[in-house]
Design brief:
globular; single chain
Amino acid sequence: QVQLVESGGGLVQGGGSLRLSCAASGRTFSSVAMGWFRQAPGKEREFVAAITWSGGRSYYADSVKGRFTISRDNAKNTVYLQMNSLKPEDTAVYYCAADSRAYRAGPPSTSREFGYWGQGTQVTVSS
């Protein structure tokens, strides 16, 4: 079992930065891929970024590539999402998620393979 708690959301002006954190409890954190997703009002949840269990590879949605960076600290059981050059269209509730399978070679291919989810943190970017 993995329990996830996000923090770091808030209100920021366009062009600004925020760093989201996701603290995980449970012994399996260091063995599972982690991901960030977001859901804006009236829209479906969408993939933002993912990182493999070792931290060796990361993956991004095209909409955030070059602006967002996912990282993890397995010693602290925490995954981060550094968000720079924020745009109003980045406004959403951001969720972190943990893979339901350990030691997967790459990230889960669908959101359904992320078996554990946090409660979300609101990010609002003003224009």
